Structures
1.
Amino acid sequence: MSEKGSIIEEMRAIIESGEGAILSAGRLMPERALVEFYGVGRRTIREALKVLEDEGLLYRRQGMGTFIGAPAPRAARMSALTSNTSPQEINEVRLEIEPVLARLAAMRATPSDIEQMKRFIVRGRKARTGAQYERWDSAFHAKIAQTVRNELFRGVFELVNGVRTGQKWLSAREQSYSQALTAGLLDQHEKIVAAIEERNPQAAEERMREHIRTASQRLSPAAGGLS
């Protein structure tokens, strides 16, 4: 494995575990510190960060640093939306947006994009807690949005996903976590990726719609979740 490849793998492992010398308070140490830590050139570090950013594992803000996870809209706006939005409203919007993103991904995703989706599914299957599963589930859906390569679509997705991954709803989904339930959801992830890989837009759209409907049952009153 190349030097850059080894650094990428190590950073992935640190992000997955949430622990490591280069990680503090949800962000990575600055680029210059990473250069010194790994003993490589700045170009190698920047290329490694770009790969991980494309995978949806981190994002960078100029002058602020490198953060773990997907970028969220402004805090004040997100707080208001999270407080005033119900799970049913979130799923209603997701049903209108994400099936379309899956359809477009079937036409635009590169082989590398598809391999990254598969990698997130593998990591999701290794999850043993709700928090671990949610990290890789969010990365999977964010990756599909990224492969569409439409910044407006991606911005809308990030807004909805920011509400969906807000602490209020994230805690509720973590409480409803079970390996049996997530195994079924991950099977649906695999079917979505298969349709994307087969370049079948209609199947990708239908499978994503089915998946969101299934996932929404986690927070339904009948399932013992939120009302």
2.
Amino acid sequence: MTGTVDLTLDRLAELPSAARSCVHWELDATAATRAAANGAGALEKEAWLSNTLLEWGTCGQAVYVDGKMAGFAMYAPPAYVPRAGSFPTSPVAADSVILMALWVLPAHRGRGLGRVLVQGVARDLALRAAGCGSESARAIEAFGISASRPPGHPVHDCPLPEGFLAATGFATVRSHRTYPRMRLDVRATTGWRADVGQAWNRLRSGITVPRAAAGLTNRTSQPAPRI
């Protein structure tokens, strides 16, 4: 099996330690500060994931190389992302999910895995739309971090680079010198499949989903071009 696999509770421990305990998006500012001070970030992260999985469903995708997690993405509707309201370009559109985090292990960057993860998120949403119609999210939105932000301007740690989002198909829907809000319509990603053959052939030899995952999900993303 190739592509992405749903990020479940049993896979949470495979995230890098910093990501495992980070609850920047999952809690409001006061609660996140309290969790960090008490060393409770990992427990809060697990509680958030458990609750979101129960109430909304899949909210993360992971990609594996040689049997080890090489990257992950997390996403959820705005109601599950309290910190999103603190950005100057909020609110996120009601028909969208927020791409909260996307991370690729440094050793595997530059191989297109970031776009594979975005495609995995889009595929999950497309499958929901096929089953639920208008009730499903139609787009992915994210708060970018601009490379041209004013020198010394304070920034959040978690937004994704504006350049990466643009390279994976996101378009700016609300400009800002530091935190532009960007959007990718799920329907737009269906055209990626026509361009992915050669890039995936270069990647497929190393990208695998652990055998146990085959029993957990049959929803895998299509590969995507290298970025």
